[in-house]
Amino acid sequence: LPKQKGWLKVDPYLRIEGLETAFAVGDAACFEAHGLRSGQNVEEAEAQGILAARNILRTLQGAQLRAYKPKNTVQNPRAIISLGGNKAVVYSKWFMFTTFAYRIKKFIERRYMKRFT
Description:
With about 120 residues, the chain is α+β, with helices and mostly antiparallel strands.
């Protein structure tokens, strides 16, 4: 299987390069298009998983596949990183702050986890 830095190389439709019916997403995949490389984070993994599932159905139906467009890229990263205790940092291309980062992170985590309860 074609790899890049240990990850499976995928085409714009999230198929493993050279394979028409095998897909890879998230931490298993290395997605790069138009000079942008997808970040290895939950936001990208979820979006890739949704599109890959839809593209699998399209493959089975003989329909045209949709290309993936990354939002959280290596070139334009966004992250909320816990520093332990009640501290965190928010990082984006445009700003970095720590003041309310912990509260923001906890709010996002609770909102995200509500989907599964």
